Amino acid sequence: MSNLLIVDDEQSYRQLLTLVFEGDGHYIRTAVNGREALTMLQEEPADVIISDVKMPDMNGIELLAAVREFLPDVGVVLMTAFASVETARDAFKLGADDFIQKPFDVEELKIIVKKALDKQVLITENRAFKRAQRERGSVKNIIGASGKMQAIFQMIETVAEVQSTILITGESGTGKELVARAIHDLSPRAEKPFISINCGAFTETLLESELFGYIKGSFTGANTNRKGLFEAANKGTIFLDEIGEMSPAMQVKLLRVLQERRVRPVGAHEELAIDTRVVAATNRDLKQMSVEGTFREDLFYRISVIPINLPPLRDRKEDIPELVEHFIKKFCDQTGKRLTINPKTMQFLENYAWHGNVRELEHTIERAVALERTDEIQPERLPEHVTNYNPARIKAEFDLPDEGINLAAHLDNLEKTYVVEALSKTSGNQTRAAELLQMQVRSLRHLLDKHSIRTLSAQMRNSD
Fold first, then answer.
1. In Å, what is the CA distance from 329 to each residue of 322, 348, 359?
2. 320 and 300, same domain (yes or no)
3. I want to staple 35 with a disulfide (CB 3.0 to 4.6 A). Which of 58, 274, 324, 464 is the partner?
4. What is the mean pLDDT of residues 303-309?
5. Domain of residue 244, residue span
6. Of 90-99, 211-220, 315-324, where does mean pLDDT reach its minimum?
7. pLDDT single digits (tens) 54-85
8. Residue 398, in any domain of the structure
């Protein structure tokens, strides 16, 4: 049984249409003008609205425009005794399904309404199909049968239905953006945009204009108005990756946006209301940063209403075989190869610590598939640091001496050693060194200053 709303200020038409469509088995409600209809629709949506155009208080065109704000797909059929080309044009421009002139043939109106109802069925079926595809795709992209990953899957399904901000934490390469996208795809916002931005990839000024937009003339080069990502993701989700890299000034501005749900484009005097869900991610300890004063404590609590921590791959090694098979298939599909994996090769992969997590494993399998010339991935196709990895030897190197150690000083020296080694391997190239250490360039420069070795990279470049 379909739900029809008839809107007309003439009682005779309301009674006629009620008799006609109730006789066909439809559930009918009536309203005397657009204002009353709008109130009724906010309480209970309709499948199709049949509305007169000329009415007091709020006419049919105004009702159509208002309805499209919160019921973009509802069927709307407009009637009028004062038809004009301009009125019809406005109606179709706003998304009316059809337009009929009074007095009308009842059978013709029935056909028009049936078409509108058939369209609703198609929209509903198509939305359900797309949602099922998204759900399968999103979950399929996150591999893992371990208990830890099953708990993550359950958390994703639970938090997808709420609107709270979410903070996803975990080491680099654990799949934080995949989780954020899965949350969006399973949420009521799935039909709206999912927009991702890496906060560490922009300077403070550029990040502000990217997130909030700007108006023409607000700065040199601002030749037109530009919509910010918060506005572009309205009704959808914005994913703020590496939020720990955000400057203190931007943290203040973001906090205000989250509190007020309004953004002010750069150079503008007026604010824009937004309805955008925020999912943030970081590989840093924001709680500790808030204690140290490098990340605002109030912002930390605002974005971490629902925290999700992704386990490193070394803590869920039982997922490695499934991930390996997934990546072999992925890269074989791209190259046209058909490969299996040698059991010894799999042993090396399961044994390794994977400090770069799933991303490092993916790159390792991509390399192996590209290099393999037989029908089975051999151990020789793996990097030496994977095949030479020996947990027992590494453990012995880190055995705690009887007299104990100064842990802080030891870790500080170890950190400096790795930074110097990364710069040495890259001939002083800070961008490539940061990639080796799996951190942002800004974070690497912080370590250079911390250990008073900022000039070292320049010296290495000059000596190269």
1. 11, 19, 16
2. no
3. 58
4. 95
5. 141-311
6. 90-99
7. 898 898 889 998 988 888 889 999 998 876 66
8. no
**152 and 244 housed in the same domain:** yes
What pLDDT does 421 receive?
82
Asked if residue 354 is part of any domain, the answer here is yes
Is 80 within 8 Å of 53 (Cβ atoms)? yes
Q: State the Cα–Cα distance between residues 34 and 53, nearest whole angstrom.
A: 9
Q: Which two tokens stand for residue 10?
A: 């003439």
Same domain, 116 and 179: no
Out of 3-7, 95-99, 184-188, 451-455, give the one with best mean pLDDT: 3-7
Q: Which residues pair with 77 in a beta bridge?
A: 50, 98
Q: What is the DSSP string of 232-288?
A: HTTTSEEEEETGGGS-HHHHHHHHHHHHH-EE--BT-SS-EE---EEEEEESS-HHH
Q: Which residue has the tokens 């080796």?
A: 436
- Name the pTM for this structure: 0.63
- The residue out of 268, 285, 311 marking a domain boundary is 311
Q: For residue 402, how many C-alpha atoms fall within 13 Å in the half-sphere facing its CB? A: 0
Q: Last residue of some domain: 334, 365, 393?
A: 393
Residue 202 lies in a domain: yes
Q: Output the CA–CA distances (angstroms, integers) from residue 22 to 1, 11, 63, 138, 230, in the order listed.
A: 10, 16, 23, 43, 45
Taking every pair of Cα atoms in the chain, the longest distance, rounded to a whole number of angstroms, is 100
Mean of the pLDDT values across residues 188-204? 92
Q: Total structural domains in the chain?
A: 4
294 and 335 in a single domain? The answer is no
